[in-house]
Structure formats: C-alpha cells, structure tokens
Design a protein that fits this description.
This protein is of the alpha+beta class and about 100 residues long. It has one domain. Helices cover about 35% and strands about 15% of the residues. A two-stranded antiparallel ribbon has the order 1-2. A two-stranded antiparallel sheet has the order 3-4. The termini are far apart.
Length: about 100
C-alpha cells in the first residue's frame, strides 16, 4: 500500500476547515465598542493597582561625578578610579569592558 506523505492528514484538514468556518462566523467588533474599550483603558492609565491617582513627579537628586571617578566610554557607567583598566584617545574603559 503506497502512502502519499505530501497529502495533509485528515485530522489536519478537518481542523483547518473548522477554524476557517469559525473565523467566517465570528463577529468582528464594531468601531464604537473598540473606541469605548480604548477610552476605558486610557482612563485607567493613571491609576495604580490600588486605585489611587499618582499626581506627583519623580524627584531625583543628581550628584556630580567625583574627582576619583570616571565614566566608562563603553558601558557609560560611573566607576571608581580603581576600576579603570585603560585609556585610549582620552576615553577611559573599565575592567569589565576591557576584560
């Protein structure tokens, strides 16, 4: 008995036909319901999980680079001078980036 391996199996054919029928019979959402869902999502954007509004801005204290620190030219992290591995063309590199 010869078997045609290129032919789709019967269970695959049936599942493809069923999924196509399901897609055809599915109702697409109308524009009003989509807009309403988006508006509801936008209204919830400013809420925390507890339901509180967050109205304060993030305040960060910026500390200037100290004399014994450098900024690695590869990873752009501020490192202590003891972590400086090399300096090429005026650009310092840390031990982690060089090694």
């Amino acid at each position: 008995m010869a078997t045609d391996y290129d032919e789709l199996r019967t269970d695959v054919k049936e599942s493809q036909e069923n999924s196509l029928e399901a897609l055809k019979s599915a109702k697409a959402p109308d524009a009003k319901s989509v807009v309403q869902e988006l508006d509801e999502a936008d209204a919830l954007d400013g809420l925390t999980p507890g339901g509180e509004f967050i109205a304060e801005e993030l305040v960060v204290q910026v500390i200037p680079q100290a004399d014994d620190e450098f900024t690695c030219w590869s990873c752009f992290l501020v490192r202590h001078r003891s972590q400086k591995a090399s300096e090429n063309d005026g650009h310092a590199y840390c031990v982690e980036c060089v090694g």
